[in-house]
Write a structure and sequence with these properties.
It contains ten helices and eight strands. By secondary structure, the protein is α/β, with parallel strands linked by helices. Helix 6 runs antiparallel to helix 9. Helix content is about 50%, strand content about 15%. It has helices spanning about 5-30, 30-35, 40-70, 80-100, 120-135, 160-170, 190-200, 215-230, 260-270, 280-295; strands at about 110-115, 140-145, 175-180, 205-210, 235-240, 250-255, 300-310, 315. The chain folds into two domains: about 5-100; about 105-315, Rossmann fold (3-Layer(aba) Sandwich). The protein has an eight-stranded mixed sheet with strand order 3-2-1-4-5-7-6-8, with helices on both faces. The relative contact order is 0.11.
Amino acid sequence: MDQANVLFDVVGHLAATVAFLGVAGYVTVRRRLITRTVRRSRTIYWLMLFACLLFALTHAARLVSLFTRGMSSLPAWPDLVSDYPSLIGQGLVIVALTHLQVVGTHSAARRRILAVGAHPDDIEIACGATLAKMRDEGSQVWGLVMTQGEKGGNGHIRPCEAQRGAEFLGLDHMQIFDLPDTRLQERAQDVHAVIERVIREFKPDLILTHSPHDLHQDHRTVHEATLRASCDFYTILCYESPSVTQEFTPTFFSNIGDYLDVKVEGIREHWDQRSKPYVQEERVRGTAVFRGGQARLRYAEGFEVIHTAAATRGEA
């Protein structure tokens, strides 16, 4: 092999190695975007990451082989040593493409969904996957939070985290009010007035809110205020927060098989709450597995049907 061809091959393999390592880095940095825009995102992410690393290894091995051939009398690396990673990488890409399903918005189910929570992380923890799924199915989704969460964390940071969480899930609108955290019962009339005003403005087809079977006084206050504000409403589903009691008995389940990773990432936006046990990934996944078992699904979020004229027992 003449010197020009060797130099050309060295530059080509070096550039390819750097390029595939760069793509691997980009895939890692943009993992959250992949999670939100691609179904089976965890599988896609790892397959693409390994494929990029294997392609980089292939070109790095060929680069070393060229240097070995040109700088010593030892035999060059066997071609199979550098070809095997390439073949495996191509296989991983093919497998990833067969699993690839880009999330799209469907206009057929254009409903208006309102999710009401007491604190900045309530919605993501309780029904984040269902809200993301409904948004991708074409529904318009609003979030409504009563407090800044100042008693459970930093009251300046938590509203910003809630806005970022809502943006990640795809919510069309998020309102966060400044009613007193842990003392909503003292301002029950104001809570009722806020929810009633938003219902009049948005005219939702479905409301998701706290369960009456909840140990947290703010959660119960929001539940009661939501019921009063929507007395002429059709469908209200009560979601499961970490503080529900054993009396919480879901009869309606949302299949979140493609959205559990989205929920986990949405909860991670609440960095201020990262030390709380109920935001840990294993706890979130465990709850989804448990409710999924009840619904004969892989993963599910469960809801109590409190006030309805349309919803029936079953799966969303």
